UniProtKB/TrEMBL annotation:
Listed name of the protein: 3-hydroxymyristoyl/3-hydroxydecanoyl-(Acyl carrier protein) dehydratase
InterPro entries: ApeP-like_dehydratase (IPR016776), HotDog_dom_sf (IPR029069)
Organism: Maribacter vaceletii
Organism ancestry: Bacteria, Pseudomonadati, Bacteroidota, Flavobacteriia, Flavobacteriales
Superkingdom as given in the UniProt entry: Bacteria
Length: 149
């Protein structure tokens, strides 16, 4: 998708204050990149920083876009064909080096590691890396279950 910014609200059931991605800036069949500007009304902000659960939720939301997009009609950039839901089925690994502050914009890059599809269900493993000012602040590997509803 290049430098286009896709509003993720159309593709996730999450809404503020649980929406942890502002835009998807890149997506293809095995990776996605998202941006999130941290503000004071975020449910995971405490003492001026985005806490660990918020970072994991951010990684999960960007990650789900990689596999979730295959459940949408091609070219649907408004989420009108959204018929999926997803769950983190396992947190395999998480390393958190730093907590970003209110006002920071973090960039999350994800890569599909494995995927198994059955009728209407995908089970997948995705690696995520979160950056703040080009510095790696989080690395994690998550498993997901994504299915049509």
């Amino acid at each position: 998708m290049g430098k286009n910014k896709i509003g993720i609200k159309n593709f996730l059931p999450h809404r503020d204050p649980m929406l942890m991605v502002s835009y998807i800036t890149h997506i293809n069949d095995d990776s996605a990149t998202g941006e999130f500007q941290i503000n004071t009304d975020c449910v995971f902000v405490k003492d001026g920083v985005l806490k660990e659960p918020g970072l994991i939720e951010n990684a999960a939301q960007v990650s789900s876009a990689v596999v979730g997009q295959s459940f949408f009609e091609k070219g649907d950039l408004e989420g009108k064909t959204n018929t999926i839901t997803g769950y983190i089925s396992a947190i395999k690994k998480v390393t958190i080096n730093q907590l970003p502050k209110v006002g920071d914009t973090i960039v999350t890059k994800t890569k599909l590691v494995s995927r198994f599809d059955t009728e209407g269900v995908s089970i997948c493993t995705i690696e995520s890396a979160i950056f703040n000012n080009d510095e790696l602040i989080v690395a994690c590997t998550l498993n997901f279950l994504i299915h049509e509803i």
